[in-house]
Design goal:
344 residues; mainly beta; Immunoglobulin-like; 2 domains; 6-stranded mixed β-sheet; 5-stranded mixed β-sheet; 2 helices; 19 strands
């Protein structure tokens, strides 16, 4: 098995909604391999959502968290952690819950150690003042791949290992969050926010609201929101969708004209007492806060298939439609090249 080394910086930044409004965020930025003298240049460059972290079962993962501070709020000296949500961590020290482990102060580093044991879709977030820091944007996707995963061998390119029926040709994470405009505005204005009055104004997929959701990865108009939510496949491709909800509300997601097959829930395959396959079909997927789903479908005839939230008010931007949790599945007639990685 491999040794994985990754480094994240905790800092702040700004994101843009389709209506032109800018919102202050806290978040993570990938500083893996950045020279020590250049790390400071990443202050104020948080990403929503945070960089993908992935490893195979049995890998040894060394994840360094560096607290770069908040240039947008220099009066704040918040500590930060990395918590792998739902992950069976071996000891509390590396679990990221500050009451039982370590919180990283401004200007300091901490090295987390993980060894994945169970494949599936997880998430990570800061667990220091988590209600605030999660809403402010300190959230990211996490994939634990099966031990025998090999993207070059179709039978071994699976979500849960060979023989589990979870082979796929393409994969995408669908990361659901919300944004309460007042909470972010109060943070900039140095005002205390009453979190019992939480009310989302924007509903996001991969850190974007529609129509930005269908823009390409790395669109220059969205420098702090690098991940598209547009799903692409060739007819006949088996597609794996990794749903993550790190918002505070349940969401009901449907892809019009494409039935879904649930292959995993919270990084566990649905199996019976004797190992029988209990995976099941769904048309509408209800994703609770803190929950993940591994969902598969076979791409149908070429065309564009809408992906949207069945709660209509969540398909708006600050009350104006269309917007929010809307994207699309674009099916091509065999013209797409092989996918080099998740969401690519």
């Amino acid at each position: 098995m491999a040794i994985i080394e990754q480094r994240l910086g905790a800092t702040d930044g700004w994101v843009k909604m389709p209506d032109g409004n800018l919102f202050y965020i806290m978040g993570f930025v990938d500083i893996t391999g950045v020279p020590e003298t250049a790390v400071v240049s990443y202050r104020g460059k948080a990403r929503l959502i945070a960089p993908l972290v992935e490893a195979k079962v049995g890998d040894e993962v060394y994840l360094t968290l560096t607290n770069l501070g908040f240039p947008g709020r220099p009066d704040l000296d918040d500590s930060h952690t990395v918590h792998w949500h739902g992950f069976p961590n071996q000891i509390p020290l590396y679990d990221g819950v500050p009451e039982a482990s370590v919180a990283v102060r401004v200007g300091r580093d901490f090295d987390y150690y993980y060894k994945p044991l169970d494949p599936g879709t997880y998430m990570y977030h800061c667990h220091f003042e988590p209600v605030e820091h999660i809403q402010m944007g300190m959230v990211g996707p996490l994939i634990a791949r099966p031990r025998d995963y090999d993207p070059g061998v179709p039978a071994l390119k699976t979500a849960y290992g060979s023989g589990t029926g979870t082979e796929f040709a393409r994969e995408y994470f669908v990361f659901l969050t919300e944004l309460d405009a007042r909470a972010h505005e109060f943070m900039v204005l140095v005002q205390e926010y009453d979190w019992s009055e939480y009310r989302a104004d924007y509903y996001l997929i991969n850190g974007r609201a529609y129509p930005d959701t269908v823009k390409d990865n790395g669109d220059p108009s969205l420098p702090s929101q690098p991940f598209s939510a547009r799903i692409k496949a060739n007819t006949g491709d088996r597609v794996l969708l990794r749903f993550v909800n790190l918002g505070y509300q349940q969401h009901a997601i449907e892809i019009v004209g494409i039935p879904l097959h649930v292959a995993g829930v919270d990084a566990q395959r649905p199996v019976g007492l004797n190992g029988e396959d209990l995976s099941y079909g769904k048309n509408v997927l209800y994703v609770a806060p803190g929950q993940t789903y591994d969902v598969m479908f076979t791409a149908p005839a070429p065309g564009t298939y809408p992906l949207y939230n069945r709660n209509c008010h969540k398909n708006m931007n600050a009350g104006v439609a269309p917007g929010g949790m809307v994207s699309e599945v674009a099916v091509h007639p065999g013209t797409l090249p092989p996918q080099p990685g998740p969401n690519a």
